[in-house]
Amino acid sequence: MSRSVLVTGGNRGIGLAIARAFAEAGDKVAITYRSGEPPEGFLAVKCDITDSEQVEQAYKEIEEKQGAVEVLVANAGITRDQLLMRMSEEDFTSVVETNLTGAFRVVKRANRAMLRARKGRIVLISSVVGLLGGAGQANYAASKAGLVGFARSLARELGSRNITVNVVAPGFVDTDMTRALTDAQRDVIMKQVPLARYAQPEEIAASVRFLASEEAAYITGAVIPVDGGLGMGH
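Structure for 3-oxoacyl-[acyl-carrier-protein] reductase, as requested:
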């Protein structure tokens, strides 16, 4: 059965791979994007998730064109890496506002229809950094760790309504962001990963699609690492 799916930040990288995975499975897929030209083949809605009114308008458009959101993937996020002594308050709050509070906004708005339908799938995209920490990433790690507590609280709150809430925590993924690293930086990272390679975005997407499937109906409050073993033990 074709479902109404929303992937925030679905215009590139991991988000785009997730959107494509659902579309290939026959679902109706909407994506949000903040700037640039969105990819074709999806219901693309321009939306800054730090703005509650834009989130509301995005949902209204999606509901009108493809129905109430049945599967939500909260993927949109930003980084502003900096050592703590040089990190401004705006560096910290802007990352938390987008990555954590932004997820709160889109989940809360999706929750309305899911509660009425007494079913739903919510997947939050965190990061191995949220579990391990990362020097120069206190803001990013705090926001991504926050998603775990947020998801587990909602899993308890919404489970009786047949709504599952899970987290996928990717490691280092082969995207434009990681390709910008120097060879020396990439070598340092590779030495920490037991599988000795970067993930492909499609590998993250496969885990997300599984969590949204009927086969995963009894999984909620879980944190699924897709990190080549980098964060094992967490």
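The first helix runs from residue 13 to 24.
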